[in-house]
């Protein structure tokens, strides 16, 4: 249909390339890799990191208090360390929530894809008077194209979540680009 974005149509036609089964397989593989590998991995990493950060907090807090009481650090340094400790716990807690959001996004995209293909087929047949085969081919291409257009950014976001969750540094001077390549 002419009302559909050229990007969605191009993605769909490129991935299908005349064979709807291959297009559906390519799309399914991308969705499964995003959901089962990247998103689930990122979610698990952030859950574990958040749990470890929270579990270690009392011990780290007691170490700060012990250093302060023994005179190894002054009150200003103790406040600085407590703030850093609080910031670390907040970061991992936020990453845990963000990874759950990314996982929900991946699951929602699968549901939306199923709704698009069924709804598109029904609209084509009953409202646009298309034949069954033409409606199926048209809306399969459009659904796969729309799914790919949505899955590529979702895969990038899920990957970035995993990178941020697994690549942290104590040296704040280290730049993000060097974190990505190590």
UniProtKB/TrEMBL annotation:
TM region positions: 20-39, 106-126
Give the GO terms filed under biological process for this record: bacterial-type flagellum assembly; protein secretion
Question: Could you tell me which Pfam families the record lists for this protein?
Answer: FHIPEP
The answer to whether the entry has keyword Transmembrane is yes
A Gene Ontology cellular component where this protein is annotated is:
plasma membrane
InterPro entries registered for this protein in UniProt: FHIPEP_CS, T3SS_FHIPEP
Q: State whether keyword Transferase applies.
A: no
The protein's UniProt keywords, in alphabetical order, are:
Membrane, Transmembrane, Transmembrane helix
Please state what the protein is called.
Answer: EscV/YscV/HrcV family type III secretion system export apparatus protein
Which species is this UniProt entry from? Answer: Helicobacter pylori (Campylobacter pylori)
Q: What is the gene called?
A: flhA
